Amino acid sequence: MVVKSATKKKLMDLGIAEEFAHRLADDRKWDDVKILAAGEIAQICATDSGMAQNITEVIQGSTKAAQKEKKAEKTMIRRQRSTASRRRTKSILPLQAYDAEDKMVQIHRDLDIHNPMFISLSDAAVSENVRISPKTINDLVEGLLSRGKKKLTAAEARKVVSCAAADMTYSRVDPHEAVGITTAQSIGEPGTQMTMRTFHYAGVATVNVTQGLPRVIEIVDARKVPKTPTMKVYLEETDAKGKPLRTEEKKVQEIAASLETTTTRDIASIDVDVAQRHLNLELNRANLRLKKMTGAEVRDKLSRALRLYIQADDEDRPKVLKVIPGVTKEDDLAELANDPPTYTALLQLEDKVKKLRLKGLPDIVRANVQGPNRDTGEYYIATIGSNLAKVSEFAGVDRGRTYTNNINEIYGYLGVEAARQAIINEMKDTLEGAGLDVDVRHLLTVADVMTSEGEVRAIGRHGVSGTKHSILARSAFEVTVNHLLRAGVIGERDELRGVTENIIVGQPVALGTGSVELFYIPEEAEA
Predict the structure, then answer these.
(1) Crossing angle of helices 116-127/154-170, nearest 10°?
(2) How would CATH label the architecture of 196-229+406-451?
């Protein structure tokens, strides 16, 4: 036997030990080595299966890498120019600094924290060592004001706080109380009074938001995309140069124009010349100015997106652009007479040009400036469509306050805790918008159930109800036969711990009075 030096060298170049490389190269070419299985390598090298597996992965990895490298070289030679021209650098924004004072201002924005009674009650809560939220203190202040009270002494403040603490303790849920049933009744009964309607932003007829029962259904079904996705985009106080931003209407309008999706139809009228087999785009100057674009910019973006040669009536300030299917460079124009484009190609090009996004962020259909705020003088942007991840990367956007009604987007970008809070906010706003008063603790229960597994789950057979441990509870909801059949096949067992399954079998549920067993032991009568 003769050791193949070329094979041994190649193996050692891959990082394989000389001892193993020597044995593998014994009368074997590289083509013979790379097809060896892990078991054969273990036998040849007299080593364990783990080491043999590592050697196999190194050899196979080198083969795949070589194929990819060879393929990449060919691709680079053929598309070197186009790749270089289309390369874009991804802008990475710095982390937004956390301002504790500004955050507290946001938390207390709906509270009258400067009211003397608010301050008195807060101090009394600290002195009495009572944990009470600012929202509850504000509710107490409003109650006192409605009774004509303007000022509190220290003793009165302590008494109010003590009474509030006692009431909060009394209102806590008792052990084994049926909170789920109470929650369902609390939301379900007012839900029957809700109507199907849409809500218009004041003065903006183009921005509609689904409200009422359809919105509640969207939330509890955990729809991937709501019927009317919308965002409120708030801006930072100053721009990169330190100049005021959110109080300047023109600057806010510029940002809104940059966020809003601009298609070809927004800035040009498209005319299809069937006889000559080409498209004519007549640019609208007013719309171009509104979108902060130029004719040359439109021509360049069309050329790069379509990979076609775009003819213009004026190189510097074009008014009319001409697009011909299949013409990628100016020299191709000479061959049009011999090989004209087909009618099908023309229609396909027309459809592509109409849908082409020239500027703005995906899914942001409209962006309207709202404001100014009476107190702060700031403006914000209301959008039709939602893209939280992309909007948050946009320079000048205040990521801490920007909000979307798309709960799944919030979950994907900010995590499950933010999604839980969004479920509470959206349900609370929807119910209040319909004039219904539901205790927020019931909404908290729904949000907790939907997010308890670390993701946003629907309350239905594809989510919460479909993943219950009880077979009878799952089968009582939907697709009864499938659940019972599967449980029978795999030998699943039902422990009868929930409400539904105990009702089905006709025994008390393990909640409320059913959570305890009470026995009466009569005393024996004396003789």
Answers:
(1) 70
(2) Orthogonal Bundle (1.10)
